[in-house]
């Protein structure tokens, strides 16, 4: 995946994991400063860039770097 | 005046502080309830942080053998600190000679600037609360571990009273959690007991 | 679909205060995407209402004023009347729009006020701890219907989008959901249409979002998102009026 | 060139004053005895490019005002007692959001629906608690059509100056009586709102107008700022006095009641009685200093407060005097309105003959 | 047998007090920080045959109260600042219609939406102008859970006794803190409403409960009747004092603020400072006489008023004292709450060392 | 028809204060006839609202309480909840019920409160001198629509009886008129049905009367009564819900 | 007609006159205390007791004596 | 003080009173407007009766060459009375030596109890206002007849001023009624004129 995972935004709701059609995503063991388990790409190679994770994430965690740094 | 000052009154002013999910308000409420059953005058004042969800929160618990006027106190005699922001906020307010139980798993001395000045004339007891809680398989029960430790130190009430209060707090629905909570309480209690006797021994 | 993976320009970077799995923030993002795509950020004024979303202004990077509980539509009326050149939206909960605000809301609709309402229907009062609202389904337990909503006591759930469909002043009334990717996309299209209609001064535009409130539904985020499917049985998705 | 003189009701004078003051938008809900205001506005505003909208209730009216004010227009509403009560949440928000507007209350006799004749029963509500939570606004009490016209116009300027609502507090006597009004052009300042109004975030950061502050220190700071603003409003204090020396009794009254009192006082003075007269024109802030100075400098012994209510302004007079002089409260529960002759009699009763020989 | 002791929040104590006072119906709309009251009522009332209904707004809630009261039931509502503002038209009607009910206001820090921490910013609104048109009601300010329980229960009796609403004015400290409550059965009188309640015109002429009086003499008569009723309420005045002799400074405060003050005063007294304490429990009618007597009989030189607002009750203290003593106002704009330690410091500052040597 | 020429028992003998040709008093009489025929005078409580009919209690000989403007339905809710054994009605104008009172009114309907509403629709605010109301027809001149009601400014007339027809809690919603003898008779039958349904606790019962206001319509009594026929084109008579 | 005409109640609106199918009713020249012209039965013999005047009169002017005297 | 009392000020206090339909408020407003055009300070205070529709109403008009403070006056110098209830209500309030114009068509001396005491020290001028108005075919214009009579007696303003005021009051829509109103005014004026000259003659 070419996008940045804004880990600090993640609240560990799991919606992205559930809806990812390629089962790319999993919870990592790491926690962010908010105390939530952070999502990670377990199988980045399987990702087809469909954007569903972006669509379903309530916290806008998956973004193109340049769009966030603007 | 002299009459009043002669009789040493028994008054415990305790602030519990931590993250929203750490059971801060539950344990504060619990100790107040147990205190009431033990015959103390008590008050419990929760303060939610500015955030609606999550964020830090703290509560003030007073146990006294006299009437309690203000439920608020600026300089408590005791602190139970679950995380770093709480440490930074409340240690300065601890009374001279006061005692703070601090969760050493989340508060690291290295991260604290001017640690020495901050804690001068204050007793800090570092307790690995998360570790204890995880050790007994109840990672969320660090609040009860802390209570066990505190009660061992202050001897506020016997375990029966705590059980009575815990029963009441858990209600019918959550009663199955009684044993687990008790286990955590005992863990804290016993760890401090062991520590104290280790002190005596050495 | 150009918006995929683009952090919307009109979304501030502040972390959301919403609970995990809450749909409020997802809808915020959609709103910002629409504002960006229409290029209207600089002439938009939003009205934040009282509810879990009262901090709207910390997230959406447009001019925003807070309205008292239930009065967002009246405030929007004042704005739009005074400055018809601005694009105006309200962001309201079901309690805000349909309980205390029902009079203000329906009169604005009836007058055909030319602004856009985003109504976030999570079937209860999130902010105050989960009390019954006009849209709470029958039998649902809330903190003030401890035995579940009984129509003989607390009345029937109100179907606002349908009701507005019958108002002459309304240009668009639709109910959408964001609990799966397809619905997210079509919710966005409907919202965009609402703003377009507003720009063309067609009338009152209303988009109701079925929205998950995991905390007060006492569900984990995933179950809550799934439960929205169940809600669509009571609150069917669709467009109830579209003057085209 | 002489200005046009017209014979108008007080409520018409208010409407004309609003137009002179640059009112661009009006939102309101009908209620007697002030329906002429919306009716005039519905005729006058649209041709000037302004906005008139009859709201579906007072709660919605005041929130339409809120919206129009937030985008920087000069806006007003008008109502009467029960309608004003319904607006009180809105008032509190407007104050908190620092949004200017003009509010007219043509009081009726309460409580409840009461009656439509003159009353001053909403004094406390206007000056002490227009809403919840410590909010205050400037309150003007005109006592003639001319003053109603001029103060209403000025109110728009002051609202903008302080970014705060301003209330015109009137009653059915002034509201419904007609007298000549000189339609003089007033120099009402336009005050730029570019620094805060919501106009779309073009070439500047987005703006937020809000009243929610969950951080208690932030809220306290904000309340202090507002408090200081109210204190600054003391610059706007206005009053009328008639006591050049030797008066031993001072009559204090506001609004229509002050007219009736003034007649009585003038009559008594003409007959040689040493009676003075003090009329606050701003009810908030109250002209406390001026009143206290007058009483102390003139060594006035008795102060009589006349009001058309159960005794309200007398408290502000007492707070001004701090124990100076003998304070007498003469309150007329709404809505039986005394005649000047009645007041003359009352004032004379208060004149202890030994203290105040007839000259 | 010992009464049951429970550890409850102030708002729970209010709800329990209402049940003890015979509350049959509750209508209200959620608002923080008092949601526990409707939540408890929704659980407790229906099984007792009572009525709980969450209204769609505060305006409708207060009018449901109006209806239920008119047919003779003991009824209550509760809310917080903005919601109370919305009810103010309703309050004025209830007063005018002489309908009893109990109203709870757990104040938040305003104006506008403000914050949810403790505040006393609605003092003026409660005691001076609960609505338009001269209406008043009894206002109780409990300062402990026990008092909240007992006063709320008593409020139902007094509402019926005077056929007037009664307000319990509280704040988030008392509302949210927990302390032991002794659930003692209180002897709350049932007062027959057969003489006026609407129950169907069976075997008697039909009854009318109204507030509209277009005849001004009729309205004035009615207002006089109400005024006399408010004066009768002075019988219900309650206060707490601590000043047995020799105090030179008197601290005055109500509600939660009085608790914090009391702590400070007790500490100072323990240290030998001559500081007294006065706490009004009824805010309307205000214990003016008692306060004035205390100050004059004890020759108290300084009176310090502490409040969690921008300075409100201090006016009633000033009106009580009429210039006696030096009055000092210490107001804390919501919502920064001072600690007892802060107050001790403030009080000491006021102690001019020459006047008040440390013993 | 036994009631013909009988001065209703529950009508007081006081002269009405209404203008000549006003239908308010005619509707008062119908109400009293129904109360008499059902024999419910002694267990009925009425709610007078604020409008031309605020003096209801001078005419109708049952227990009556006055409610603030727009709040009659909430007051009625309070009464009926507290004393379900009483028969309760509100008597409200179009301004009272549908402008300021819309929220209270619709929520009561939605909750299915078991009382009866008489809504007297004279398409404007009679008492305050003839201002526009939510039911004013398009183009009609009023004191606040000097150029006639323009939908772009003042919105569209609201059709309340139809709207209530869609509410689950409503047992009966009908619109009637009293501008000819036949209509008077059928209006009475509908009103009677409403009280019967209330007695059977079937739900919210609503009867809307198209009513002449000669003074503010600026017509003589006869023309005003005739003009009601014209109004039926905008506000059709009929029963919009009847759960039978 | 066997009914009483409660003249003091009449407000002269003319609805009864308009709707009387038998054209029995007219305005008399008399005025009542309210100042309104009072309705009178010009042709009582034509009346068929249909009751329409009762039905349409907003002021309840046409009533059986015993019902009013109750 | 003496200074003030020396200059006799010109002040007319007039109350008009009658039924709602008798044009009481119109004529009061009219005289105030004409008074203003004539250069007086004026005030006009209408009071509606307790009934919303119909009922009696009255208004107070003050014309003065000094500032007018109170628009209310208990003891007016002049009364214009159109019906019996108004007579009974206002005659007791008429100043000693004051003048009342009374509509003799609707107020009958026979119907008034204690007429003598009621009217002692007061001048009553009985005018058949309805008759005059009907005589000129304008049965509703009795208010203007009364105004004509009053102005003849007091000489407040010339007819041009009245016409100006009348024009203003009638507005565009009702301007066609100008002539008729004027006719009524003149009728009252001339009747009093004739009456006065009859007095002079005799
Ligand atoms: C006048 C007033 N009444 C009540 C409240 C308390 N209040 C805040 S938000 C809210 C309801 C929120 O529910 P909803 O609008 O559905 O929004 P959600 O939180 O569910 O998104 C209430 C009752 C208030 N702030 N003001
Ligand atoms: C809170 C409030 N706002 C406004 C009014 C003034 N008011 C009295 S009646 C009325 C409207 C009357 O219209 P409607 O309900 O249609 O009754 P109608 O007189 O036409 O029969 C209004 C606005 C009031 N009494 N109270
Ligand atoms: S882009 Fe699609 S496939 Fe890739 S991680 Fe996201 S949801 Fe899965
Ligand atoms: S959807 Fe977003 S917030 Fe939820 S787990 Fe995935 S990345 Fe985290
Ligand atoms: S309470 Fe519900 S609506 Fe509010 S933030 Fe949490 S999940 Fe979202
Ligand atoms: S104003 Fe209209 S509604 Fe009111 S009484 Fe007159 S005719 Fe009837
Ligand atoms: S009863 Fe019929 S016929 Fe006889 S007068 Fe009346 S309407 Fe005419
Ligand atoms: S209908 Fe009645 S009020 Fe009208 S004219 Fe006939 S009798 Fe008189
Ligand atoms: Mg919601
Ligand atoms: Mg109407």
Q: Explain this structure to me?
A:
Chain A has a single domain (3-67), classed as Alpha-Beta Plaits (2-Layer Sandwich), CATH 3.30.70.20. Helices cover 21% and strands 23% of the residues of chain A. Chain A has 3 helices and 4 strands. In chain A, the strands form 2 sheets. In chain A, strands 1-4 form a two-stranded antiparallel ribbon. In chain A, strand 2 and strand 3 form a beta hairpin. Chain B has a single domain (11-201), classed as Pyruvate-ferredoxin Oxidoreductase, domain 3, CATH 3.40.920.10. Helices cover 46% and strands 20% of the residues of chain B. Chain B is built from 8 helices and 6 strands, in the order αβαβββαβαβαααα. Chain B has helices at 2-6, 24-38, 84-90, 115-119, 129-135, 142-154, 159-174, 178-201; strands at residues 11-19, 41-48, 56-64, 78-81, 99-103, 123-127. Chain B has a 6-stranded mixed sheet, sandwiched between helices. Chain C is of the alpha/beta class. Helix content of chain C is 36%, strand content 19%. Chain C is built from 9 helices and 9 strands. In chain C, helix 1 crosses helix 7 (181-199) and helix 3 (94-100) packs across helix 4. The radius of gyration of chain C is 17 Å and the shape is globular. The chains are: A alpha+beta (70), B alpha/beta (202), C alpha/beta (244), D alpha/beta (359). At the D-E interface, helix 4, helix 5, helix 9 and helix 12 of D face helix 4, helix 5, helix 9 and helix 12 of E. The structure holds thiamine diphosphate (2 copies), iron/sulfur cluster (6 copies) and magnesium ion (2 copies). One iron/sulfur cluster (SF4) is lined by residues 18-19, 22, 24, 52, 122, 126, 213-216 of chain C. One thiamine diphosphate sits between chains F (50-53, 69, 93-96, 120, 122, 125-128, 133) and D (29-31, 58, 82-83, 86, 113).
Question: What's the short story on this structure?
Answer:
With 70 residues, chain A is α+β, with helices and mostly antiparallel strands. Helices cover 21% and strands 23% of the residues of chain A.
**Percent range of helical residues of chain A:** 10-25%
What is the CATH architecture assignment of the largest domain in chain D?
3-Layer(aba) Sandwich
Strand residue content of chain A: 15-25%
Low-confidence stretches of chain A: none
* Rg of chain D computed from alpha carbons, rounded to a whole number of angstroms: 21 Å
CATH homologous superfamily identity of the largest domain in chain D: Thiamin diphosphate (ThDP)-binding fold, Pyr/PP domains
The CATH class of the largest domain in chain D, by name, is Alpha Beta
CATH A-level architecture of chain A: 2-Layer Sandwich
Topology:
The complex is a heterooctamer, with two copies of chain A (70 residues), two copies of chain B (202 residues), two copies of chain C (244 residues) and two copies of chain D (359 residues).
Chain A: E1 4-5, H1 15-19, E2 25-31, E3 37-41, H2 52-56, E4 62-63, H3 65-69
Antiparallel strand pairs in A: 1-4, 2-3
Chain B: H1 2-6, E1 11-19, H2 24-38, E2 41-48, E3 56-64, E4 78-81, H3 84-90, E5 99-103, H4 115-119, E6 123-127, H5 129-135, H6 142-154, H7 159-174, H8 178-201
Helix pairs in contact in B: 2-7, 5-6, 6-8
Chain C: H1 24-38, E1 44-48, E2 63-66, H2 72-82, E3 87-93, H3 94-100, H4 102-110, E4 116-121, E5 124-125, E6 131-132, H5 151-154, H6 160-165, E7 170-177, H7 181-199, E8 204-210, H8 214-217, H9 221-234, E9 238-242
Helix pairs in contact in C: 1-7, 3-4
């Amino acid at each position: 995946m070419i996008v940045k995972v804004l880990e600090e935004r993640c609240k560990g709701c799991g919606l992205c994991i559930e809806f990812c059609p390629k089962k790319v995503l999993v919870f990592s063991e790491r926690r962010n400063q908010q105390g939530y388990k952070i999502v990670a790409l377990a199988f980045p190679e399987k990702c087809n860039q469909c954007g569903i994770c972006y669509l379903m994430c309530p916290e806008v965690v998956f973004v193109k770097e340049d769009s966030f740094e603007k | 005046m002299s009459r009043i000052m002669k009789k040493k009154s028994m008054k415990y002013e305790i602030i519990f502080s931590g993250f929203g999910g750490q059971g801060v308000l539950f344990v504060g409420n619990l100790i107040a309830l147990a205190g009431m059953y033990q015959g103390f005058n008590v008050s419990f004042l929760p303060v939610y942080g500015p955030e609606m969800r999550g964020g830090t929160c703290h509560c003030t618990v007073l146990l006294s053998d006299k009437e309690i006027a203000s439920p608020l106190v600026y300089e408590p005699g005791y602190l139970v600190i679950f995380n770093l922001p709480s440490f930074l906020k409340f240690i300065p307010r601890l009374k001279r000679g006061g005692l703070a139980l601090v969760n050493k798993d989340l508060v690291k001395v290295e991260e604290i600037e001017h640690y020495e000045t901050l804690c001068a004339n204050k007793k800090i007891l570092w307790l690995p609360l998360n570790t204890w809680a995880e050790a007994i398989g109840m990672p969320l029960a660090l609040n009860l571990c802390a209570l066990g430790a505190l009660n061992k130190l202050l001897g506020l009430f016997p375990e029966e009273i705590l059980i009575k209060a815990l029963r009441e707090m858990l209600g019918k629905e959550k009663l199955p959690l009684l044993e687990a909570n008790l286990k955590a309480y005992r863990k804290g209690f016993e760890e401090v007991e062991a520590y104290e006797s280790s002190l005596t021994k050495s | 679909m150009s918006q995929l993976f683009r952090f919307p320009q009109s979304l501030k970077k502040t972390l959301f205060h919403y609970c995990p799995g809450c749909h409020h923030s997802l809808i915020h993002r959609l709103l910002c995407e629409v504002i960006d795509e229409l290029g209207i950020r600089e002439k938009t004024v939003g009205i934040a209402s009282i509810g879990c979303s009262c901090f709207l202004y910390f997230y959406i990077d447009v001019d925003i004023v807070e309205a008292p509980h239930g009065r967002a539509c009246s405030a929007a009326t004042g704005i739009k009347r005074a400055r018809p050149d601005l694009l105006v939206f309200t962001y309201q909960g079901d309690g805000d729009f349909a309980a205390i605000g029902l009079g203000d809301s329906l009169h604005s609709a009836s007058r055909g006020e030319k602004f856009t309402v985003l109504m976030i229907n999570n079937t209860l009062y999130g902010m105050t701890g989960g009390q019954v609202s006009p849209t709470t389904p029958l039998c649902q337990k809330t903190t003030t219907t401890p035995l579940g909503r009984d129509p003989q006591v607390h009345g029937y759930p109100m179907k606002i989008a349908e009701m507005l469909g019958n108002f002459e002043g309304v240009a668009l009334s639709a109910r959408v959901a964001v609990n799966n990717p397809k619905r997210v996309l079509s919710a966005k299209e409907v919202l965009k249409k609402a703003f377009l209609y507003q720009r063309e001064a067609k009338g009152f535009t209303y988009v109701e979002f079925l929205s998950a409130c995991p905390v007060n539904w006492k569900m984990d985020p995933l179950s809550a998102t799934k439960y929205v499917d169940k809600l669509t049985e009571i609150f069917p998705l669709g467009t109830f009026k579209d003057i085209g | 060139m002489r200005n046009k003189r017209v014979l108008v009701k007080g409520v018409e004078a208010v409407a004309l004053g609003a137009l002179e003051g640059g009112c661009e938008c009006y939102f309101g809900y009908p209620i007697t005895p002030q329906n002429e205001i919306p009716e005039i506005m519905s005729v006058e505003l649209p041709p000037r490019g302004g906005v008139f909208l009859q709201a579906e209730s007072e709660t919605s009216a005041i929130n339409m005002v809120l919206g129009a004010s937030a985008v920087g227009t000069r806006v007003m509403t008008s109502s009467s007692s029960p309608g004003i009560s319904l607006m009180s949440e809105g008032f509190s928000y407007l104050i908190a959001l620092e949004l200017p507007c003009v509010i007219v209350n043509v009081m009726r006799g309460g409580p409840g629906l009461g009656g439509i004749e003159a009353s001053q029963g909403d004094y406390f509500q206007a000056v002490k608690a227009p809403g919840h939570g410590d909010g205050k606004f400037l309150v003007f009490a005109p006592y003639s059509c001319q003053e109603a016209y001029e103060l209403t116009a000025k109110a728009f300027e002051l609202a903008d100056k302080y970014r705060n609502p301003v209330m015109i507090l009137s009653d059915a006597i002034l509201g419904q009586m007609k007298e000549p009004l000189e339609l003089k052009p007033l120099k009402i300042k336009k005050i730029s709102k570019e620094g805060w109004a919501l106009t779309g975030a073009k070439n500047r950061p987005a703006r937020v107008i809000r009243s929610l502050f969950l951080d208690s220190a932030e809220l306290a700071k904000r309340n202090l700022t507002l408090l200081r603003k109210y204190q600054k409003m003391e610059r706007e204090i206005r009053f009328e006095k008639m006591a050049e020396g030797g008066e031993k009794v001072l009559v204090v009254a506001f609004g229509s009641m002050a007219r009736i009192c003034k007649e009585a006082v003038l009559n008594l003075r003409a007959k040689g009685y040493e009676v003075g007269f003090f009329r606050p024109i701003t009810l908030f802030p109250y002209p406390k200093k001026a009143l206290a100075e007058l009483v102390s400098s003139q060594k006035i012994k008795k102060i009589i407060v006349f009001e058309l209510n159960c005794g309200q302004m007398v408290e502000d007079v007492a707070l001004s005097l701090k124990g100076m002089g003998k304070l007498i409260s003469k309150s007329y529960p709404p809505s039986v309105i005394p005649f000047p002759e009645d007041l003359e009699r009352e004032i004379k009763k208060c004149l202890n003959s030994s203290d105040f020989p007839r000259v």
